[in-house]
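Board work, copied verbatim: Extracellular solute-binding protein
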Amino acid sequence: MRVKKRAFQVLSAAMAAVMVAGCAGPTATEATKTAAAAGTETGTGNYDEPMTFDFYDVAANYQGTQAGWFAKVVKDKFNIELNMISPQVAGNGIYQTRCSTGNLGDIVLLERTDFTDCVKAGLIKDITADIKNYPDLMTYNDQITVLNKALPENKDGKIYGIPCQMTNTSPTSYSQDVIKSSPLLRWDLYSELGRPDIKNTDDLLDVLEKMMKAHPTNNAGDPAYPLSLWKDWDGGDGMLGIANVAQLTTWYGEIIKGSNILKPDNTFIPVNSKDGAYYKMLHFLNDANRRGIVDPDSGTQDWNTACDKMKTGRVYLMWYNWQVGF
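↓ predict structure ↓
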């Protein structure tokens, strides 16, 4: 089927997240139905007929037709538009609603538990035969096999999903250019203060407080704060608790796993342990709030509002590597 082949070429062109092929029900777009009936696609980049893929993404913080440079690449190369469906924007009820119609989406990104449930319910397509036609994906055959063998009652070893964050390096090799989470300061403001040594989180708060005193607003005169938080991701990615705090625990090499913390020595402690990084980072943010350097909108604003503030220079501390794009 043409829709199947074109979908997999999109996947192999941009392998960045857990992806599965949904089983489109009677609500599938007319473009998809027409393409599916048209037969096998031949050649790469020769797609005269436009198509729209419903892209259900549990991690997305944007909903609607995708825009930007990646949307242009997919449109130019495959003549495809991606309609993003985000439970973080539309609300978690959209998951149950779309599941009940039998059409979660054409390409689906899910948490592990929902992935298992959707396979059981027949909402996820068996891609065993298709995936073998794509050498780039088969490079990660071991990781893909491990994920799918863990599915209950998958005795035949069929492939339904592709795990995220796969690498071809050893588990102990670090392969990112920038650490995923670390204190990232505005270099111009830090230099203005003489680039003082920062040995711990107390020193960090001292520097941030001085930054805010020197620059309480951005260039446009809008209020600026060292920290600006948002609540959209709380409880996501299998983390129990506040997502902004849970991500900061990695500064200590500790990762939230449900109600536990995985420590660097591969032991677990309860998430509320006073010896753990979650407790430490709660105190870090509480101290920051007491100093008045946390955006007062943090308890109510969503990701889009926080994102706009980052873009306009109203936030002085970042902690995700991708935030440097702002």
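The two ends are 41 Å apart (CA to CA).
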